[in-house]
Amino acid sequence: MVITSSSSSSVEKTTICHIPPGNPDNAHTITVGGPAVRAHEAHGDYIEGSCEDEDFNPEDYESKKESRSSESENKESKALDRAQRLIEKLEQKITDLEDRLQKLLAKYESGEYYGNISEGDSEINTFEISLDGTATSIYDDSVTQDMLGKLFMENQVTKQDTTKFKITSGEIEIGGDIYDVAFGKARLSSSGTSGEENSLVIVMQTIDSLDNENTVKMTLGFTTSIEGEFGNPSEEFEILDNSRISEQWFLDGSGELDLKS
């Protein structure tokens, strides 16, 4: 590469051999500013000197350029193949999610989603669940957001060994993003070995601000075992480990459950 300096300017000049595409016989020597050298190299010019350099042969250089072009095309083709395979995988994942959602909706509409409820409660009460805590990214535990929420549910079955609820509405807000509850279910359970019912297991489907369907699984651990009229007075709870919004957030915090009517 031959570099010269212009007396009227501080910009360095470089002597190169310009090779018109497809016409190497018309190669000719030119001088360009330093910043333009890489652009000329990119479209195949010889930048190591003039066309008169003994190391430069137009036909050999054109052959090398074609070889580099072929390698570039092969790399581009492989990249396109990888991109196409990725697109196909994503499309299949979307199809699988849509199928899953359709099956879930069918179960909801038929009542199968809530299980076999042959003798439901005759008196239906409404409960309000208030959530206050933190959401931590499943993929990066350094990313956290404030989490607030309100959920509403109704009792379905209240028996000595089975207490089930229907989540009717609500929303969870995480860092300004809203997850609207579509439907869900809950049941009283035991979180320890005592057998006492002291936790509420919730599974519900939500729609986020991008219209994506998300599954929320949450376990609320009450400070005491559930006795008497549930939710009256208010029941305080902690959000237990492994509570999450699928593939997005781990949930942590506390709250209260109240009997509204």
What does this structure look like?
- By secondary structure, the protein is of the alpha+beta class.
- The radius of gyration is 34 Å and the shape is elongated.
- The protein folds into two domains: 2-56; 126-259, Beta Barrel (Porin), CATH 2.40.160.
- The chain has helices at 37-42, 58-110; strands spanning 2-5, 12-18, 28-33, 126-137, 144-158, 163-174, 177-189, 199-207, 213-222, 235-239, 244-245, 249-259.
- Strand 1 (2-5) and strand 2 (12-18) form a beta hairpin.
- Strands 4, 5, 6, 7, 8, 9, 10, 11 and 12 form a nine-stranded antiparallel sheet that branches.
- The protein starts with a strand and ends with a strand.
Tell me the layout of helices and strands.
Blueprint: E1 2-5, E2 12-18, E3 28-33, H1 37-42, H2 58-110, E4 126-137, E5 144-158, E6 163-174, E7 177-189, E8 199-207, E9 213-222, E10 235-239, E11 244-245, E12 249-259
Antiparallel strand pairs: 1-2, 2-3, 4-5, 4-12, 5-6, 6-7, 7-8, 8-9, 9-10, 9-11, 10-12, 11-12
